[in-house]
Design goal:
Layout: H1 3-9, H2 21-33, H3 41-48, H4 54-60, H5 64-67, H6 82-98, E1 103-109, H7 118-132, E2 137-145, H8 152-163, E3 169-172, H9 186-195, E4 199-204, H10 212-216, E5 221-226
Parallel strand pairs: 1-2, 2-3, 3-4, 4-5
Helix pairs in contact: 6-7
């Protein structure tokens, strides 16, 4: 039996980390240049000052130097450079592997599907991590998929091509995120992706119960990201899936 098949049979806990791209890359650059990494203390303070909701969520996605005046943007290298990209990926994977992770799933925004050599670079980093931790296994998911976003059709077609190169799945994120979104068009895309062998995930229920029921009707769906407000719906099971 292949290692991949063994990994699929294991029970899993989803330890979900967010918004680490720049911070991790800055830490790697600091290590390579022999300086201490930035602490991001003022950024953390400003985020914590806001109550849970879209304002806090939007602040998390704001450029780091806007939130932290002590941070110098030139401390961040460009991830468009393949060497930086692979080094960053390898660093992330090694962190996970050294903590005992067996299956590591890394999510990338929708636009990354267009990056030349994307899966090759990902697999290069996975091989480097597995050289030190043979039991480690990494997969990647393209997230932020939504038909109404600019350029969405081109990026979705790229995801289909990446399936043949090893992409594990796609993740639909509705807009608006905290209110009921228009899911028209999602079902066709999900059915196409599932028939091509891609896993189907959807973000819903992180900030409100909106979109949970709609997400559960998506063809091929196997997981909901976050979903912490699912208990607020007060609805019985629908189609065998808890709502």
């Amino acid at each position: 039996m292949s290692q991949s098949a063994d990994v699929k049979k294991l029970p899993k806990a989803d330890i979900h980390l967010h918004a680490e791209t720049q911070a991790r890359l800055e830490r790697l650059v600091a290590r390579q240049s022999g300086r201490s990494p930035h602490t991001w203390a003022s950024r953390v303070k400003r985020v914590r000052e806001l109550p849970e909701g879209m304002d806090r969520f939007d602040l998390l996605l704001t450029e780091k130097h806007v939130l932290d005046p002590e941070f110098e943007p030139d401390q961040i290298e460009d991830l468009d450079d393949d060497a930086n990209f692979v080094a960053w990926l390898t660093d992330v994977m090694l962190d996970a592997a050294e903590e005992g992770t067996v299956l590591f799933e890394m999510r990338f925004g929708f636009g990354w599907s267009l990056r030349p050599g994307f899966m090759s670079r990902f697999q290069e980093a996975e091989a480097a991590a597995r050289a030190r931790h043979p039991g480690f296994h990494a997969e990647t998911i393209i997230t932020g998929v939504w038909p109404e976003r600019p350029g969405a059709e081109q990026m979705f077609e790229a995801c289909h091509r990446l399936k043949d190169e090893g992409l594990a799945g796609i993740d639909f994120i509705p807009e608006p995120y905290d209110r009921e979104a228009n899911w028209l068009g999602v079902h066709d895309w999900a059915a196409q992706a599932a028939s091509a062998g891609l896993g189907i995930n959807a973000h819903a229920g992180e900030l409100s119960s909106a979109n949970i029921a709609a997400a559960l009707r998506v063809p091929g769906l196997t997981r909901i990201g976050h979903g912490v407000h699912a208990a607020d719906t007060g609805r019985p099971a629908e189609g065998g899936r808890p709502v």
